[in-house]
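Task: complex structure prediction.
Instruction: return structure tokens for all chains below.
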Amino acid sequence: MIYLNGKEHTAYATLTELLDKNDYKRTRIAVEINGRIIKRSDYDQIEIHDGDRIEVVSFVGGG
Amino acid sequence: MITHNAYEKALISRHGKKVHDILKNADIAIAGLGGLGSNIAIFLARSGVGHLHIVDFDKVDITNLNRQQYDIDDIGKLKTIALATHIKHFNPFIKVTYDSIMVTERNAPKIFSNYPIVCEAFDKAENKAMLVNTLLTECSNTKIISASGMAGFESSNMIQTRKVNDRFYICGDTQSEISKNTALMAPRVALCAAHQANMVLRILTGNEEI
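Output:
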């Protein structure tokens, strides 16, 4: 079990899997795991562990 | 002719000396000078923020006038110069500096790392994400106040400020995206800009919670 955007969620093995299965567009998000911002170039190397608190902030257009 | 001294006195009479002195000594950067950025800049200039650094590569277009703080006479001018000129009309005593360039992952740290607070006020989602990611990972002394979701005329009360972490705030309703059917309109964009500007004032005065 992990926490995704503050809610309990089934665990994923990797950040890649989490992003792909939830249809996140990588160019439109910022990812924080346990309070640490993840560099975009590191997304595909990040493993997810039980209990991780993951925030994926999605941006929409307009300004 | 209004003197600097008279202007300061007027601001102090409204804001109090303690708050005025804090704002007068602040340096704030604004990335993007459309509906969000032009409003944020004007809110902060009217509040007496001493130095604004405004950044946009673009020129004023007739389609900007529905929500951005420019005039008919500004069409065709660089937004940086048009906005700096406009600010001088109501507060000639603050410092306004500008970069009329396109912000990229590469130049963002150089442009913004000297500013303790940066307001992200871009239009495209990809540019918003680029700036937030770049500043959070490469400029460890900079807080960013971003915006996402302010198109249309859904309820005003959906627009909120959220603190994601100690250096990252996001304002907006998170979902109202500009599209073929949903335009950006003056009230809701200004509402979101006001959230961002108010968060700047809160952080400067030591209130880091939303």
